[in-house]
Amino acid sequence: MVGIDRNSDDSSLNARAGPPVAPPLPGPPMTKWARKGVPQGADCCVSTTAIDLWDRLFDEGYKADVRIHTDDGGVVYAHAWIVSMASPVMKGMLKKSKRKGRYQVLSIGGVPHDAVRVFVRFLYSSRYQNQDMAEFIVPLLVLSHSFMVPRLKQICEQQLEQGLLNMENVIDIFQLALLCDAPRLGFISHRMIVKNFKDVSATEGWAAMKQSFPLLEKELLECVIEEDNRTKERIRRKNERKIYLQLYEAMEALVHICRDGCQTIGPHDKVFKKDQPPCSFEACKGLELLIRHFAGCKLRVPGGCIHCKRMWQLLELHSRLCADSNVCRVPLCRNFKDRIKKQNKKDETKWRILARKILRTKTIGVAPFFTSACGC
Ligand SMILES: [Zn+2]
Ligand SMILES: [Zn+2]
Ligand SMILES: [Zn+2]
């Protein structure tokens, strides 16, 4: 016998105790500032005093050298070096801008004056009021994309996803997401439109899109129809599964009645005790009534009474699922097996598909219940 030196190979013992520990994730790339020891990212703390200072600089416009004209005759004052650092597009615009006295002049049109203010403030301090974000989410998304301010764009997308996207603005946001290269937002708005088509199609946004982009409307309508068909198909499958499950349960109950007997019905050699506990097979009650009817019905021929016809079908179905007819106690099991051999191919395929679907309902390869139909 080979002895184990417990101290000789610690690593092999650890390996037996569980999977090896994953190596640590690679850290952030070293920037030249990080190499110089300047604190970066999560290690870096910014006091609110500093942010307040940047806000004040914007609010007071101290030594501002840029005038941004807005649509409604308003002006926002800014500092060229700050807005240039925060937005490469702004930098490019400033290079080409005209100078009037000490000011370089820009204009930002197509969005409300207050939205431009909120935007420029963000360039200074990355700060915004929730109320402003809710009011100007659409223009802020446009501005952040047009002026290449990714952090603001990301915030706009997050805010929309977390509640600002609604029935009224979803059509506008969807179109913007396509124009502003925001695939996730596009996907979320698309899903909202398709799921709430009735409400969304009644909005002004939808009417405006219908006029300006009829092709987009057509595409959305096609998606709505597709989704509708998918829902119908899901419901159909669900109902179908329910029927197969009921059939499976009926098959279980049939074997149980013929093998063990249930309450007062069962094999002729079974002695029924009084005060039996209630049966655990849900389908038993209905099946018991059907069997009693079948035993007494005068029209007991295939194609006759609908109840008897159902009983014939259940008996045939059982026979197709039954593993061993020689020992099975279900009536006519063997007769059906013999008849099946003579059946034409088309009928045979139909029954085989039905049997397979019933067994699949219970997500089992072979139904163990039917292999024990003999009771031995
Ligand atoms: Zn029962
Ligand atoms: Zn009948
Ligand atoms: Zn059988």
User: Using DSSP, what is the number of strands?
Assistant: 4
Strand order of the largest sheet: 2-1-4-3
| Elements, N to C (H/E) | HHHEEHHEEHHHHHHHHHHHHH
How would a textbook summarize the main sheet? 4 strands, mixed
Number of helices: 18
What is the helix content?
55-70%
Bound ions, cofactors and other small molecules, one mention each: zinc ion
Q: Please give the radius of gyration in angstroms.
A: 38 Å
Spans of at least 5 consecutive residues whose pLDDT stays below 50 are 1-16, 364-368, 371-376
Secondary-structure-based class equals mainly alpha
Shape from CA axes?
elongated
State the end-to-end CA separation.
Answer: 48 Å
Mean pLDDT: 81
Beta content: under 5%
Short description:
The protein is mostly helical and 376 residues long. 61% of the residues lie in helices and 5% in strands.
Give a written overview of the molecule.
With 376 residues, the protein is mainly alpha-helical. It has 18 helices and 4 strands. Strands 2-1-4-3 form a 4-stranded mixed beta sheet. A hairpin with a 2-residue loop joins strand 3 and strand 4. Helix 4 packs across helix 5 and helix 7 packs across helix 8. It starts with 9 loop residues before the first helix and ends in a 5-residue tail after the last helix. Bound molecules: zinc ion (3 copies). One zinc ion binds next to loops. This is BTB/POZ and TAZ domain-containing protein 4. InterPro entries: BT1/2/3/4/5 (IPR044513), BTB/POZ_dom (IPR000210), SKP1/BTB/POZ_sf (IPR011333), TAZ_dom_sf (IPR035898), Znf_TAZ (IPR000197). One of its GO terms (molecular function) is zinc ion binding. It comes from Rhodamnia argentea. Pathway: Protein modification; protein ubiquitination.
